[in-house]
Amino acid sequence: MTLSQLAGAELSRQAIHLVETGKSKPSMPTLELIATRTGKAVSYFLSPARGGQPAMLDERVLELQRLCVQQQFQGAVELGEKILADSLPPSVAAQVNHYLGQALAKLNRADEALTHLHRAQALLEVEPDPWLAADCADWEACALYLKEDSRALTVAEKALHLCRETDPRLPGTEARILEHLATIHVKNHSYDRAIAYYEEALDTAGAIRDLTRMGRTYHGLGIAYQQLGNLQRATEFTHKALALFALERDQALIARGENELGLLMMRQGQAARAEELFRGAIAHFEAAGVEQSKSHVLLSLAELKMGAGHLDEAGQLLDKAIELATRLGETLALSTGHLLRGRLYTHLDRHGQSDLEFAAAFRLLSEAGLHDRLAESHADYAEVLEQRGDAAGASEHWREAAQIALRKSTQLPSRADIAQGSNTAV
Predict the structure, then answer these.
(1) Domain 202-288 in this protein, CATH class
(2) In the list 98, 237, 261, 392, which could disulfide-bond 120, CB 3.0-4.6 Å?
(3) Class of 39-169 in CATH
(4) Which residues on neighbouring strands pair with residue 48, listed in sequence order?
C-alpha cells in the first residue's frame, strides 16, 4: 500500500511519513484510520510487547483481521475455524474468537457468533485487553439484536461503558457503539433516545467517515423521525441512507432502506410507490441470501394490502411473515404479525380470533420486556375495540397502555399515530 493510499482524503502523505518514521505521534482518529486501511486492529499499534514489537505477530490472525475489514466474512469464518484447531496463547485465541464472532454476526449466524464472543470474553479475563473487551461486548450486543433479544440494550450499554474506560479512547469504536445503541432504541420504539444517540455518534466520529455506519445512522434517523411525525426529515434521511447503501453495494442494507422508504410512501398515501419499494426490498433480501428482517418487509406489504382492502392477499403475506419470524426467533416481527393479524380478523368480523392474536402479541412483548411496544399494542387494541363499539373494553386497554407508559416514563403515542400502524423494520 502506498503512502497516498494509506493517507486517503483525510490525511497528507507527509503526516503518514512522520508517523511511520516515529517523528509524530498520531491522534486516535488517525490511528483508527491507519488500522482500518492496513487491516490491523488498533490494539496492534497500542500494545507493545517486550523488545518494542507488536504483541500479536501471528500472520494468520492478521489475515483474519484483514478479511473482516474487507468484509470477506465467509473467508474469515473458514480461516478462524482453522486457526482455532491449533493450540494458541490466550491473547491470540481471544482475538481469533472475537473476529470469528464478528464475521458470524455479519453473516447473520447469531447463535454461533455468541459462542465465540463469550469464549473471547472468558479468555480476556486471563489476559486483559480493554479495547478488545469493549469490542467483544459490542459485537455480543449486535448478535443479540439480530436475535431480537431484549438483553441487547444492556450489553450495548456495557460496551459503551467499557469503551469509555479505555485509555486512550477510540472515537471510531465509541461512535459505532453509540450507533448500535440508537438502533436498539429505534427497535424498542424509544425514538427520542434513539435520535440523541445517533446525533452523539455523528459528533463522536468526527472526521472518521465509515460510509456503511453513516448509512445506518441516517436510516435510523429516518425511522425515528417518521415515527415522531416529521415526514420531511424522515424522507431526507432515508434517501441519504439509500444513497450510501448503494455505494457500498450492500443488498441487505438496501432492502432495509427500501422498506423504510416504502413505509414513508405508504403514510403519505403513495400506495403504488410503496408497493414497488417493498417488492424491491424482498428481491434485495433474496439476492443477498439473507432471511433476517425479511419478515418485516412482508409485514409492511401485508399492512399495505390490508389498507387497500385486499384482505386475502394480506392474510397470505401475514402467514409467511409469522412463519419466518417464528423460525428465526424474531420476537418483534412475530408480535407485529400477531397485531396485524388481529386487525385483519377484526375486518373479517372474526372477533374471537382477533382477541387471541392481540393476546399473543401482549404475551410476547411482556416476556421480552419490551414495555414501550407493549404500551403501543394495548393502545392499538383499544382502537380496534372502539371500532367494534366496545367502549368499556377500549377504556380498559387505554388505561393499561397509560399505566405501562407511566411505569417506563415513556410517552404514549397518539391515537392518530397508532392508526397509521406500528410496523417498523430496522
Answers:
(1) mainly alpha
(2) 98
(3) mainly alpha
(4) 54
User: Cell numbers at residue 283, please?
Assistant: 428481491
Q: What Å distances lie between residue 199 and 204, 414, 415, CA to CA?
A: 9, 25, 28
Q: CA separation (Å) from 207 to 41, 171, 240?
A: 19, 10, 18
Residue type at 366 in one-letter notation: S
- pLDDT-derived band at 208, boundaries 50, 70, 90: low
**pLDDT per residue over 152-196, tens digit each?**
999 999 999 999 998 877 888 888 899 999 989 988 888 899 999
At residue 150, the 3 state secondary structure works out as: coil
Tens digits of per-residue pLDDT, 372-414? 788 889 999 999 999 899 999 999 999 888 888 777 544 444 3
Helices (H) and strands (E) in the chain, counts: 23, 0
Which CATH code fits 291-426? 1.25.40.10
